[in-house]
């Protein structure tokens, strides 16, 4: 085994694996280099917990002659027998290495080793990836070579682990930052913030279709139900909308109590307002169906829900607003204010979906003219339109 080639591999990882654009490519190249050094790898995996509201952890699994497979598990995984009966649980809990021959009788207590035995694996080496804060993640390395890894081959794998841990930690932190921003401020806002748009006053003008919705009867509902129940209901209610909005290319910007603000950007150069507004209306209909079907059992009561959504098209100011070092990335402007006023009119008219004249004019649907209404702050009355199917 060439010590200089092993050192080159370690230095390459320390330097950020610059020849690889993605973690999966890094995994593939690192394993390929180990094989070239004489380490007879058959399969290798890196398993990292992450900070995500739905995903407990991610895996990167390399196989000789195949592509790196990227997988994820939800939060139920850490309580499952699959996890607790695996060597990786030992590595993560105790922060120690684990090595076993899947062909030996002692391996029979671990189901994963039985699977590897069927694949002809002769050696299994699991090593901790220890981050700077002491958090422990895991890696696994297997071979089908007769007799398993030699001590020199196993030592080569161990030598790579510190550099692999640093690389994994840095990439993981960057991904966590991106996911948290996506989770709390939205996809495009998160990208802008990571891109450096973090100072107060950093704003852009966006032409967009605007969605502003509200849950009917939320105040009395929150007065008569326990706070925990109200939170459950709000989460279920927002689920009815968020999936529909994102599925049609929209971005949820803000939850305001029971209110939701979302935008559907219209490209400045070649954007098609009619196409975008058609997608917005499809999302509104999908959300309407889901909220109508939503049912929540609380004691002897069976709660049903109604909501309203106002749709408008206009220019919004999109960026950082706040005080000192506490900022909010949001949309403001007359178009957002008009959408908020329209949503109140929807409640007065007992309508689910209402649209401004601008939105209705851009969306070829059978609209009903609901009349002209005075809008606070505007000199002229605004015409409001409803879907004919709701007449």
Q: What would you note in describing this structure?
A:
With 391 residues, the protein is an alpha+beta fold. The protein has two domains: 3-184, GAF domain (Beta-Lactamase, 2-Layer Sandwich), CATH 3.30.450; 199-390, Nucleotide cyclase, GGDEF domain (Alpha-Beta Plaits). The chain is 41% helix and 30% strand. The chain contains twelve helices and 16 strands. The chain has helices at 3-14, 23-36, 81-84, 87-94, 111-118, 151-185, 187-194, 218-224, 227-247, 273-293, 334-348, 357-362, and strands at 43-49, 55-63, 69-74, 98-100, 123-130, 136-143, 203-215, 251-256, 259-265, 295-298, 301-304, 307-323, 326-332, 353-356, 367-373, 382-387. The strands form three sheets. Strands 7, 8, 9, 12, 13, 14, 15 and 16 form an eight-stranded mixed beta sheet that branches. Strands 3-2-1-6-5-4 form a six-stranded antiparallel beta sheet, with helices on both faces. Strands 10-11 form a two-stranded antiparallel ribbon. Residues 209-343 form the Guanylate cyclase domain. InterPro entries: A/G_cyclase, Adenylyl/Guanylyl_Cyclase_3/4, Nucleotide_cyclase. This is Adenylate/guanylate cyclase domain-containing protein.
Please give a handful of descriptors for the protein shown.
alpha+beta; Beta-Lactamase; elongated; 16 strands; 391 residues; six-stranded antiparallel sheet; eight-stranded mixed sheet
